[in-house]
Amino acid sequence: MNFTKEKMDLFDLDLSWTFAHCIASDGKMGKGIARQFRAYQSVQASKITQLAKQQKLTIGTALYLPEVIDEKATFYLIT
Questions:
Q1: Is 37 helix (H, G, I), strand (E, B) or coil?
Q2: Which of 26, 46, 66, 73 has minimal Cβ neighbours within 10 Å of its Cβ?
Q3: What is the pLDDT of residues 19-36, one digit of tens each?
Q4: Hey, is 44 helix, strand or coil?
Q5: Alpha-carbon distance 62 to 58, whole Å?
């Protein structure tokens, strides 16, 4: 396997890329890179916050919100 190291802003990648990152089970996304995802993908972040208020997000599961347009596909891994 070959790797190429590049220095760039993750959020400048085009919509063909899919992200995955960890969030806490409260869905707040207030620290680390989760905070940057919250700022960049505000529609998805709002939906996750709503879901977390309605039902506890289960640790060890993942969320995927495919209906969000103009935001990169992202898997939210609940930790």
A1: helix
A2: 66
A3: 899 999 888 888 888 888
A4: helix
A5: 8
